[in-house]
Amino acid sequence: MPIQWKAIQRKNPQNATAVPKYYAQDVTRDVWDTDDLAQQVAVRSGMSEGDLLNVLRTLADVIAEALSDGDSVRINRVGVLSASLHSDGGAATPDELRRIRKEVGVNFRAAPELRTALENAGDQFTGDVTTLTP
After folding, report:
1. Residue 30 belongs to a domain with what CATH number?
2. Angle at 80 between CA 37 and CA 29, to 5 degrees
3. Total structural domains in the chain?
4. If pLDDT is split at 50, 70 and 90, which confidence band does 64 have?
5. Dihedral sign, Cα of residue 49, residue 53, residue 56, residue 58
């Protein structure tokens, strides 16, 4: 199925007097959870849904452990996950930096195979257009 998108009009933040332009924005139809993934993989693989749920839950735990240990995780044909950490602001000294709140996140870099699959899926305009109101 092609990736659906809609048109969104946006202003140029660097030039307030410029004419707004339209940009494509992807449309998310639904969110799949672990149960949905297990069901779909079970249908294709012949494994039981329960076994796959256990594998997916264990995979999530192992990925979290690897990332918190400072390792990256490469899932072939999917991509690479790595932890990220950023401070809310700068500090004059390393000791001061230790007291500043830090934001933790996860970076994802898609594998070439996944990007190719998405490119091959194509795209489809939904017909939805969001225009800025004066």
Report:
1. 4.10.520.10
2. 40
3. 1
4. very high
5. negative
